[in-house]
């Protein structure tokens, strides 16, 4: 009896010290999961940006519109991303234009996970107000919003409130501009 008792104590000490292991139960097997990288892309196509119609009233005017950017970061890399933007100046016909600094984002866009999706929302480092660069030809794009490393993963929607400044001396008419919006890897 003493020998059995000593063996039990010795075995208990070895287990506690992590030096002795017991074989897996019958039928046990290790499990493996391979998780491949996806892509970084807009989940839905970008819609045309349309500011509401406004009537001139003798004073400077500002109109706003909300624009949603539905982003899917399925890369599994945690490298972050950014949305860069540029545009041509708003023009009415051949000669009447709005200022190259007419379009701004006054406050940081909101970010939320898409319905039915978990995500790590973007942590943004851009300072606002932001002015969308414009010119007779579109200048170099600048960052409208970014997602720091280890943020912005999964499907989420970034909603920016865009403001368009209309000076009192603007000619009436329909003004158009061509915008280029890019989703790029890295903050």
How are the secondary structure elements laid out?
Blueprint: H1 2-16, E1 40-42, E2 61-73, E3 81-88, E4 91-92, E5 96-97, E6 103-105, E7 110-113, E8 130-131, E9 134-135, E10 142-147, E11 154-166, E12 179-185
Parallel strand pairs: 3-9
Antiparallel strand pairs: 1-2, 2-11, 3-10, 3-12, 4-5, 6-8, 6-11, 7-11
Describe this structure in words.
The chain has 187 residues and is mainly β. The chain has one domain: Immunoglobulin-like. It has one helix and twelve strands, in the order αββββββββββββ. It has one helix at residues 2-16, and strands at residues 40-42, 61-73, 81-88, 91-92, 96-97, 103-105, 110-113, 130-131, 134-135, 142-147, 154-166, 179-185. Strands 1, 2, 6, 7, 8 and 11 form a six-stranded antiparallel β-sheet that branches. Strands 3, 9, 10 and 12 form a four-stranded mixed β-sheet that branches. It has a two-stranded antiparallel ribbon with strand order 4-5. A hairpin with a 3-residue loop joins strand 4 (91-92) and strand 5. Residues 3-17 have low confidence and may be disordered.
**Class from secondary-structure proportions:** mainly beta
Radius of gyration: 29 Å
Mean pLDDT: 89
Main sheet specs: 6 strands, antiparallel
> Total helix count?
1
Question: What string gives the helices and strands in order?
Answer: HEEEEEEEEEEEE
The residue fraction in helices comes out at under 10%
How many distinct beta strands?
Answer: 12
Silhouette: elongated
Strand content: 25-35%
CATH architecture: Sandwich
Tally of domains: 1
CATH class type: Mainly Beta
Q: Please mark out the parts with pLDDT under 50 across 5 or more consecutive residues, or reply none.
A: 3-17
Q: What is the CA-CA span between the terminal residues?
A: 70 Å
**What name does the CATH topology carry?**
Immunoglobulin-like
């Amino acid at each position: 009896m003493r020998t059995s008792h000593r063996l039990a104590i010795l075995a208990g000490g070895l287990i506690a010290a992590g030096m002795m292991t017991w074989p897996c139960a019958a039928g046990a097997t290790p499990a493996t999961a391979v998780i491949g990288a996806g892509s970084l892309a807009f989940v839905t196509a970008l819609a045309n940006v349309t500011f509401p119609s406004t009537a001139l009233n003798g004073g400077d005017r500002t109109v706003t519109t909300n624009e949603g950017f539905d982003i899917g970061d399925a890369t599994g890399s945690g490298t972050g991303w950014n949305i860069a933007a540029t545009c041509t100046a708003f023009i009415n016909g051949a000669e009447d234009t709005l200022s190259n600094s007419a379009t701004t984002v006054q406050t940081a866009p909101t970010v939320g996970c898409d319905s039915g999706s978990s995500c790590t929302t973007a942590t943004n480092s851009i300072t606002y107000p932001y002015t969308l660069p414009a010119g007779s030809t579109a200048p170099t794009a600048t960052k409208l919003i970014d997602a720091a490393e280890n943020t912005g993963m999964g499907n989420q929607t970034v909603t920016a409130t865009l403001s368009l400044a209309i000076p009192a001396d603007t000619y009436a008419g329909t003004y158009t501009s061509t915008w280029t919006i890019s989703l790029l890897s890295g903050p």
